[in-house]
Each structure stands twice: as structure tokens, then as C-alpha cells.
Amino acid sequence: MLLIISIVENRNIAEDILMLAVSLDNLASLHVTATRSFSDAVAATLRDGILTGRLPAGAQLKQDHLARHFGTSRAPVREALQVLTGEGLLVVNRHRGIIVAPTDPDDLRELTELRTMLEAHALRLSIPCLATDDIDHAAALLAAADEAQGNPIEQSELHWRFHRVLMHRAARPRVLAQIESLHVAVSRYLLPAWTAAGLSYGWVASHRELLTLARRGQGEAAAELNADQVEEARARVDAWLGKQEIT
After folding, report:
1. CB 100 within 8 A of CB 57
2. Got the DSSP string for the chain?
3. Which of 21, 26, 48, 53 is the most exposed place for a label (fewest CB within 10 A)?
4. pLDDT of residue 15
5. Quick check: 31 and 47 in contact, CB under 8 A?
6. Per residue in 2-19, pLDDT tens?
7. For residue 232, which of 244, 224, 221 has the smallest C-alpha distance?
8. Which of these, 154, 152, 160, 207, lies nearest to 183 by C-alpha position?
9. What is the C-alpha separation between 162 and 210, in angstroms, rounded?
10. Beta bridge partners of residue 6, listed in sequence order
């Protein structure tokens, strides 16, 4: 399954297409067997490509190319593109059709602001209600994330699951659904930076501190530390984006 993507930029287009086709073909081989529908597999493959930077901002995605090279009809491809558009990973361009959403420091800042507010609210509600099993589960996820160096997709998933465990006792399904949506949106900024530069110094220690606060039932302190972590990540990614523009 080769994926052909049109990229209108002053680069070696044939080389770009080959590199993207090979990398996304490898992802597709994993997702086709791991998901229950072909639209899920297409969406998961493209999502991973966007989140890791294999599909750069501005890459053009054509339904007929995708359908042909995934070996399916246009219907599951259309469903997958609609899902990714709803997640904010794709946008419709008036002249070029569906493209990977451009990166924007203002968008990153807004995502950070929303995350700070909603995650703080969820942590304040959830942490006093956490059970011992929840804390043990979070600790195991954090340890696994620490060991997943070199695999940014797995590390990101484990990192998210760690935070989700700490928030899940909030009993606010709408709030948690919004937080999950924000996680997907912000990952397209975080993952390429993690892939290129690695995690920030002190990442593990900071999250162990968050776990300690959760174990003590200190929801307010945990909310404040989480806000600091979110802002630190934003500043680091913002600086990384600036370097990409220069180069």
C-alpha cells in the first residue's frame, strides 16, 4: 500500500513522495490489522503520519489517490478524512482541497489555554476520589512511558493515558471528552518536537511529582503543577517551531 501525496513546495517532490509513501506504508501495515474497519485504519495511519511530522503541514491529500493506494473505495477514505478534519488535523483549502492543517503559534497558545483550564478543573475534582488502584495504574503507565524512549507515538499514548487516569474520577464526561479532543489537536505540535528534540529535561521527575501529589490527594497543587507542565511544553514547542521557520 503506497500513499501518494501532492506537496506544492520548493522541494524535491519525487523524493518527498517516496519517503512519505514508505513511512506511511509501514504505519498502515500495523493499523489495518489492529482496527476493525478500513476507515479506522486509514484514519489511524494518516493521524500517525501527521502527529509525527511524516505528513507535513500543507501536504495535499486526494481521495482518489488514497483509495487507490490503500486498495479500497473512496467511501472509507472519505470517512477517515472527515474524522481527521473534525480533529483539526486536516483543513479544506479553497484552491487545493484537503490539506494537513498548518501549524500556528496562536493556535498552540489557545490549545494550551484550554488545556490548562479544563485539565485543572478535572484534576481538582478527580484526585480526591482516586483509589489506590488508580494511583498504581498511573505509576505503571509513567514507568512504561519512561522506558519507551525512541518511540514517540507509544510514549505520547502512555503519557496521555497517565494523565487520563488522574482525571477520570472527575465524573464530568463532557469535560473529559473536550480534554481528549484537545489532546489530539495539541499532539500534532508536541510529537514532531519530541521526535526531533526528545523530551524536556526533568520530564520524568516532574510527572513523578504530579503522581506524588495525586497520591496525597492534593488536587489544587496537582492542577498548578500540571498547568506549569503544559505551559513549559508550549514554550518549548513554540521555540522549536520558530527554528523550523528559520531553516
Report:
1. yes
2. -----B--SSS-HHHHHHHHHHHHHHHHHHHHHHSSSHHHHHHHHHHHHHHTTSS-TT-B--HHHHHHHHTS-HHHHHHHHHHHHHTTSEEEETTTEEEEPPP-HHHHHHHHHHHHHHHHHHHHHHGGG--HHHHHHHHHHHHHHHH-TT-HHHHHHHHHHHHHHHHGGG--HHHHHHHHHHHHHHHHHHHHHHHHH-SPTTHHHHHHHHHHHHHTT-HHHHHHHHHHHHHHHHHHHHHHHHHHHH-
3. 26
4. 42
5. no
6. 343 333 333 343 344 444
7. 224
8. 160
9. 10
10. 60
179-229 pLDDT tens trace: 999 998 888 888 877 776 666 667 888 999 999 999 999 999 999 999 999
Length of the chain: 247
CA distance 24 to 183: 22
Cell numbers representing residue 105 in the block: 503559534
Residues forming beta bridges with residue 100, ordered by sequence position: 90
The long-range contacts involving 14-23, CB below 8 angstroms and separated by at least 24 positions, are 19/54, 20/49, 20/54, 20/55, 20/59, 21/69, 23/49, 23/54
What distance in Å separates the CA atoms of residue 77 and residue 70, rounded to the nearest whole number? 9
Cell, residue 68: 487507490
Q: How confident is the model at residue 97 (pLDDT cuts 50, 70, 90)?
A: very high
Q: What is the pLDDT of residue 110?
A: 95
